[in-house]
Structure formats: structure tokens, C-alpha cells
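Help: why these numbers?

___
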Amino acid sequence: MTLTSIIWKELRERPTAMFTSVLAILLGVTALVAIRNVTVFSEQEVAGKLDALGANVLVLPKGVTLQDYYAADMHKETIPEEHVAELAMAGLTGVEGLSPKLCVPITLQEKSATLTGILPQAELQTMAAWQGGQLFKKHVGCKAKINVANATDDAPEALARRRTVQDLQENDAILGADLAARTGLKTGDSINLLGESFTVIAALEPTGTIDDTRVFAHLHTVQRLSNAGEVVNVIEVMGCCEDVANGLVTELSTMLPNTKIVTIANVVETQVSINRMMTRLSYLFLAILIAVGGASMASAMYANVMERRREIGTLMALGATPHFVTRLFLFKAGLLGLVGGIGGYLVGSVLALVLGPNFAGVAVQPIPSLALIAAGTAMLVSFAASYFPARRAAGLDPCLCFQEV
């Protein structure tokens, strides 16, 4: 008989003990896969929300009281624009973009509006290139790719979603959706702002915020026309969600002690803490898998060795070597671990599809790579738990085995 045929014969004749071992491993893998599945897609959901939000950290003058996130720059207090250069060149991990802003009240075609000066990202990149440095040091583990440039995001219309614009000339203007609708202005029209002519290069999509009533122009042009000097009302920071929750705010506060650093805590810290809790739970169930699954497998293998003493003795009397007997038990353990791992992956994936929308509020899809992790972990646990029982079986004396009644 071959090694494979012996194993299949025993699995058919003694299914109960083997089923119990597989079940323990399957349940552990199921919990591990389900929680990990939900965690991965929850992290992606958080990243997507932060990407849509754009800025998630605000650098404000010390005395400002934040009432509304999207109106954070609607005040008269200012901070030096040089803080922008300090942040850009600091190389803080997780900072994906900066957007300094200066607001001035204006009237456009007898309609009240806010002229907001913004600094295009291209000028920040030029500043870094002139000084031979890297603009931002991205966190390689960051799930949100907030400032990744492409053809769509470089368009002026992307300002409504990303809170930044890549290029903006000194006399270009971008209109908020509500202001464009009220004035009837469209792309290509000329407008007069603070005594100077501007060309409308885009009208934004509605955002449902105060940005819909704004006119956006180049920061330095707004500073010059308003005689405000080299100052801004706010610096919006696009930060990686993990780093915002892991100390980026503290670093910013240390670097700029005369400013107020505000983060969207309820979006960032709460969501990230939930993801951390889910990750810890997946590690907990991994430990349970190792402990319970391993103990169950070891117990079943020890019992199997005791039940099959005479059969093992017969095999050794017929010429089976200790190495063959060890392989017999380890191969069987690996097969049971593989079945438990794949079964646990399938059940865990189905469970995640149900729990994701109901428990975490996110849509979940199966993750194929988890199948390899589940099968590999289950087989490793099975091998480890069966090693000593297999060695014990290989060390049995055939003569003593035949003397037992």
C-alpha cells in the first residue's frame, strides 16, 4: 500500500476524530478570514472618504474658533505664508498635499461672494525642486492616495473634490456652482475682481458647502489686490489617515506652536481606531486558531497513535521505516489542515459578505490572497501540532505493540 492509500483508508474508517480536528481549525480560520476581510474593506472605505473630503487637518491662527469645517478660513485673523514653505520642506510622513487660502469679501455683478486665494500645487513642487528637496514624504502604508495626479484631477474642476488645483495662472478665476448659476457666468467669460480683470477657466460642480458661493483665484494675486501682505487665513493639509491618527497633528503643533491645529477627529481617529480594533481581533483569532486548533489536532493525533499501535507495529515489521511512519502522520495532518484552511476561507468569505454591510457598513468582496494565508496557516498549525505524536509513533517498538491485547 502507498502512503496516500493508507491515509485515505484511515480517514474513511475513523472519520469522527478527524472531523473534530478539522472543525476546530475551520472555525478559527473562518473567524480570521471574516474579520480580516471586513477590516481591509473598512480601511479602503475610510481612505475613500478621506480622499473625497480632501483636507483632513487645518492649520489656523491661534485665536480662531472653528465653527464649520468648510468655512474655517472665513475670519479676519491670519498666519504668515512662510508656514506653507516650512511644512512643504519639512518632509513630514503622511502629508500628501497643502492648500493655503486667503479669503476676501467681494461683490460680483451685485452678488455677494468670497474671493478665495489658493496656491496651486505646481508652485509648491517648483519650490521643492529649486531647493533640491522632496515635496512630500509619503507613508508607504497609507491607504488614501489623496494627491496622486492624473488628467482628471489636474483639471480645475477637481478643486471641488480635492480642495487643491494643480495649475492656476495669476489672472485665472474658478467659480463656485451657486455663484456661477446666480451670475450666469461661464467658462471663458471675463470678470472684474477688486479692479482687475480675470478670465473664468472653470465652474465647479455643486458641493453643498460655502465653496459654492466662492470665486477662487491665485493666492499671490489676491494678496496683492487686497493689500493683505504675505499671509493666509488657513493652511489645509491633506494627510494620510493613519498618520493623522498616529501623531501627525502633534508634529504639526510642535513645528508651528503659534497656530491651532484642528483635525476631523470623528472621521479619522474613530474610523482608524475601529480598524485597529478589527486588526487586533484578527490577531486574537489567529492565536485562538493556533491554540485551539493545534491542541485539538495534537489530541486527535495522540489518540490516533494509541489506537493504531498494532497497525503501526505491523507496518514497521513489514519494513516501514520510522521516517515513513513520521511522514504518514504529518502528511495526514497537512491534508486535514488544508481542508480546514480552505473550508474556513470559504465560510469566512461568505460570513464577511453578510457581516460587512450589516456590521461595518461597507461592501465586502472575497480576497483571493487570504485563501493562501488561511491554507498555509492551517497547515502550519497542523504540522506543528502533529510533529510530536508523529515522532512518538515512529519510535514505537513493533514487538511491544504485538504483545498488547
Q: What stands out?
A: The chain has 14 helices and eleven strands. The longest helix spans residues 265-307. Residues 3-47+272-403 form one domain. The radius of gyration is 32 Å.
